[in-house]
Design a protein that fits this description.
The chain is an all-alpha fold. The chain has one domain (2-56). Helix content is 82%, strand content 0%. The protein contains 2 helices and no strands. Helix 1 runs antiparallel to helix 2 (31-61). The model has no long low-confidence stretch (mean pLDDT 87).
Length: 66
């Protein structure tokens, strides 16, 4: 589960930085795409955090092994 969280955060951070790159460098006029890419990166980070929390919660609720 820890690996899933780390991979999700790395991918989300990479996508967000890519969006900042699109905003910062020419050709100009790509700002809407840059904002969309940043939003997708933030969504990936939040979705990963939510998924890890759900998996940890289901692990806590599982019955003890016999």
């Amino acid at each position: 589960m820890r690996a899933l969280a780390i991979e999700g955060y790395i991918i989300g951070l990479f996508v967000t930085v890519n969006g900042l790159y699109v905003l910062s460098f020419p050709p100009y006029g790509d700002e809407p795409q840059g904002y969309a890419i940043i939003a997708i990166g933030i969504f990936i980070i939040l979705a990963t955090q939510h998924l890890v929390a759900m998996l940890e919660k289901s692990e806590d609720c599982s019955p003890p092994p016999l």
